[in-house]
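Researcher: Quick test of sequence recovery. Tokens follow.
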């Protein structure tokens, strides 16, 4: 099951998802529903009589779909659940200055990112990491974890672990909007650098540039670092070469 083909590129030619391409090469049936509650799609799924469902970077499934497989449906999430439930776990882990994160496989249920945990792999966050570099590493270990989870389920070796109830130590990972990306220059240098790393390359931290007698402009900032012996200036001062 994958997304419908979509126009892309300068010529707006229909683009197939990587899942569809791989499935065709393997001779697997391919379903591309516009709506996941479409009776024709649900009926096609029922005819397949799936044993196990796996969800990776897809839309929210209705219960009629995720409850269908005999062994349930599991998802891959880019955090060490129950920490960082939500749409942007990699971003928020870096923004909050975490030293580690990871990936989790868990069973889907009625609550978002709260199903029983099947497996986890921990990964350190390097000081030079941004969202792009950390994402690439997490997806590599995540792919391995998905395979391991399937193999352990097939062998009957997994006992799902119920996630703990809400408590004050849990940090959320809500979707990030443009206004959330505005840099607060009153924060400490470390927090600002973590903020920029946690939004790079997408959606990108930004700031306003205010010049005397000129219209305000904005600029995206993708990288920042400390420089020893830098000039002392009031908070928020920007030194530019005027290019």
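Model:
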């Amino acid at each position: 099951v994958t997304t419908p083909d979509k126009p892309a590129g300068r010529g707006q030619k229909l683009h197939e998802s990587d899942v569809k391409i791989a499935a065709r090469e393997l001779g697997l049936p391919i379903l591309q529903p516009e709506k996941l509650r479409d009776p024709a799609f649900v009926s096609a799924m029922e005819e397949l009589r799936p044993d196990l469902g796996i969800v990776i970077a897809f839309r929210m499934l209705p219960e009629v779909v995720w409850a269908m497989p005999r062994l349930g449906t599991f998802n891959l999430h880019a955090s060490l659940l129950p920490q960082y439930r939500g749409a942007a776990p990699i971003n928020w882990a870096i923004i909050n200055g975490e030293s580690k994160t990871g990936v989790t496989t868990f069973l889907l249920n009625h609550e978002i990112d709260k199903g029983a945990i099947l497996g986890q792999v921990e990964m350190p966050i390097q000081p030079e990491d941004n969202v792009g570099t950390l994402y690439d590493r997490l997806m590599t270990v995540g792919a391995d974890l998905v395979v391991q989870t399937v193999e352990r389920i097939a062998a009957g070796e997994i006992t799902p672990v119920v996630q703990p109830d809400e408590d004050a130590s849990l940090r959320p990972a809500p979707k990030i909007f443009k206004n959330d990306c505005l840099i607060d220059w009153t924060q400490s240098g470390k927090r600002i650098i973590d903020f920029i790393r946690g939004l790079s390359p997408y959606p990108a931290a930004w700031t306003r540039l205010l010049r005397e007698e000129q219209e305000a402009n904005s600029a995206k900032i993708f990288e920042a670092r400390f420089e020893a012996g830098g000039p002392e200036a009031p908070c928020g001062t920007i030194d530019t070469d005027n290019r």
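Helices lie at 18-25, 39-48, 63-66, 89-95, 131-154, 189-197.
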